[in-house]
Structures are given as structure tokens and as C-alpha cells.
Design a protein that fits this description.
The mean pLDDT is 93. The protein has strands at 10-15, 22-27, 38-45, 54-59, 64-67, 75-83, 93-98. β1 and β2 form a beta hairpin. 23% of the residues are buried. The chain has 105 residues and is mainly beta.
Length: 105
Amino acid sequence: MFCSGPGPPSRVRFSNVGRTSVTIAWDPPVYPRGVITRYKVAYRFNSTLTGFIWESLLGRNERQRTAGALNAQAFYRFFVWAGTNTSWSDPPAEAVVYTGGSTGK
């Protein structure tokens, strides 16, 4: 099987995980298969199988993004694609994060 698109971004990680926001960061693909010109980040609730709550396009030197207005105490699944001028990584890199928070007790 031949893959013409870039590999997915590598070493996806979260920092600044709060009750209503998280910052996701990543490294370039191990197998870029061309010049990476852009990245795309999206997320949805981990329990949802389709659709995204939020999507963001970034330039080739932007390798982190903060997502806000999240629900506290919820699991989110993030997806990160690397793109060349002609294609996106398929599949994307995926990572799950849990937003913390107090129950108020």
C-alpha cells in the first residue's frame, strides 16, 4: 500500500489542562512526505463519533493551540492533521484529554 500524504503529527501532548481550556501541542510528522505547509486541529466529545465542536487551521510553524470554552469534568478527543499543498495526513494524530474541575463539594 502506497501513502502519498504526510504522516500524522508526532508526540501529541497537552499542557495547561484546566477546567475549561487546554493547550495541545505536537511535533512535525516523522514521515512528512513533502513540505508541511499547514496543520489542522479539531476536537469533539470523546463519546461522540461524528462531527467536530471546533476546528482551527494553522500555519506550518504553529504547533500548538489552546481550546477554550470547554465543559469541566469532560473527556475530549483531539485530532491533529499535517498538510502539504496537496494533501492532509490520513489518519490524523489523536489524543484524549480530561478537563478537571471541582464538583463544588
